[in-house]
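Intended use. Records like the one below are meant for learning the mapping from a protein sequence to its folded structure. Do not use them to infer anything beyond what is encoded.
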Amino acid sequence: MTPDDPNRPEFDRRRRSRAIVTALLLGAMVLLFYFISIAKMVVNAA
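Structure written out for the chain above:
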């Protein structure tokens, strides 16, 4: 894809939306691991 390609803005928009979805999924996975770790510590402390 060249910089003067007429489809370039659409390509950049799709790439940005995929990057946002990937970042959100990664963040959700980090939170899930965090809460699982906290839950394991609470169960083992009791």
